[in-house]
């Protein structure tokens, strides 16, 4: 984990956005590095999200009973509950996004600018969000002043980190150095609309080793492929798979893991062929049981390591999770609930018209942004609180 590396060595991997890693490093540094406490921090941020979303809903849902129903959905929405148990940055980012929107609506522009700048350290996806606020702000505020305030906060807060990245990479980066890689993965002749590294694996087939140049070449010379590719990205973005939680880091900690306690010699040999760079991972966590003649998972292996191993065994095709439990029902329920919420939201846009309403345009912003990169429901998750609220607004909201 990047957070553990930062606590132990004082260095951090600048390939990924480092905001969530820094948040995790605080309890770890204080001696609360147990997975339980880190997940508890996620729960606290998720609870804060519910509070801020309720305060936001007051401005858009005038019926008190409907407001309470929307809060009920926010509290018990299965995806939020699930992501609380993962050490991914979605929970923290959704918290910062809801706080940002609340502060903006309360006209606390200085604080909202600071929160905006900090949120970019977790996910830089909001970098163009001030344009949405300015275009769809109907209050008559000084839009030019607001625009420059937001980006001035970004410059002041991010300048030291951007300078550090420049000294390490010799390129200008706002948050991390993986932007061109993600752009290339979603925009090349091998792109599928989802996360797919085929382009990177076949880089020799491209005219340049510069990923950004390859993207521009794709846009200008294979533009006829872009509409279909964008439609695939959007489909992956807003329509989750029926069992979206299984192939993801964290499964070992959520299913109590069907991770095999024993693997045979030939299976370990197969793993070392498939994952030659992970020999230490397997050799340190599986030991030979001389009585049974198989490799046995070591006692005391932490949850995160179990999850990592579980992922690799799953993708290697060495076993499948047994989902013939209530978890499968929960997963499928979440899938159909997402379909219902998003479909209802889109129908409301058609019925009410695409009005200048912030609640409607936040989800559309995420769709537009990731249609440039690649789609995954995980990336659309931060928009779901506003999809939920948007499903309970009345037509009168758009007449204000």
From TrEMBL:
GO biological process, one term: lipopolysaccharide biosynthetic process
Its membrane topology: Multi-pass membrane protein
Transmembrane segments: 40-62, 82-104, 110-136, 148-166, 333-351, 358-374
GO molecular function, one term: pentosyltransferase activity
Subcellular locations according to the entry: Cell membrane
InterPro entries assigned: LipidA_mod_glycosyltrf_83 (IPR050297)
Protein name: Glycosyltransferase RgtA/B/C/D-like domain-containing protein
């Amino acid at each position: 984990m990047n957070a553990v590396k930062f606590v132990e060595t004082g260095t951090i991997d600048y390939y990924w956005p480092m905001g969530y890693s820094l948040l995790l490093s605080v309890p770890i540094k204080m001696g609360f590095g147990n997975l339980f406490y880190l997940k508890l921090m996620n729960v606290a941020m998720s609870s804060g999200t519910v509070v801020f979303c309720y305060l936001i809903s007051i401005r858009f849902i005038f019926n008190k009973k409907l407001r309470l129903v929307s809060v009920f959905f926010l509290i018990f929405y299965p995806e939020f509950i699930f992501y609380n148990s993962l050490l991914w940055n979605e929970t923290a980012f959704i918290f910062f996004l809801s706080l940002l929107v609340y502060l903006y609506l309360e006209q606390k522009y200085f604080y909202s600018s600071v929160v905006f700048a900090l949120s970019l350290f977790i996910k830089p996806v909001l970098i163009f969000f001030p344009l949405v606020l300015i275009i769809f702000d109907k209050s008559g505020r000084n839009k030019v002043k607001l625009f420059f305030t937001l980006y001035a906060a970004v410059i002041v807060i991010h300048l030291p980190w951007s300078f550090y990245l420049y000294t390490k990479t010799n390129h200008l980066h706002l948050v991390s150095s993986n932007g061109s890689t993600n752009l290339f993965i979603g925009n090349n002749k091998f792109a599928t609309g989802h996360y797919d590294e085929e382009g990177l694996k076949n880089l020799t087939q491209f005219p340049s080793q510069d990923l950004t140049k390859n993207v521009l070449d794709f846009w200008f010379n294979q533009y006829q492929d872009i509409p279909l590719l964008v439609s695939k990205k959007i489909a992956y973005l807003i329509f989750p798979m029926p069992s979206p939680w299984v192939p993801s880091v964290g499964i070992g900690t959520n299913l109590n893991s069907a991770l095999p306690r024993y693997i045979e010699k030939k299976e370990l040999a197969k793993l070392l062929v498939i994952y030659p760079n992970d020999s230490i991972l397997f050799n340190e966590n599986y030991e030979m049981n001389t009585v049974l003649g198989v490799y046995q998972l070591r006692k005391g292996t932490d949850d995160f390591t179990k999850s990592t191993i579980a992922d690799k065994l799953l993708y290697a095709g060495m076993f499948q999770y047994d989902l013939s439990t209530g978890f499968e029902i929960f997963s499928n329920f979440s899938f159909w609930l997402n379909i219902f919420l998003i479909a209802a939201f889109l129908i409301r846009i058609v019925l009410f018209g695409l009005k200048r309403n912030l609640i409607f345009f936040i989800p559309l912003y995420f769709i537009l942004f990731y249609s440039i990169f690649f789609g995954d429901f995980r990336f659309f998750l931060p928009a779901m609180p506003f999809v939920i609220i948007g499903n309970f607004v009345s037509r009168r909201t758009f007449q204000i």
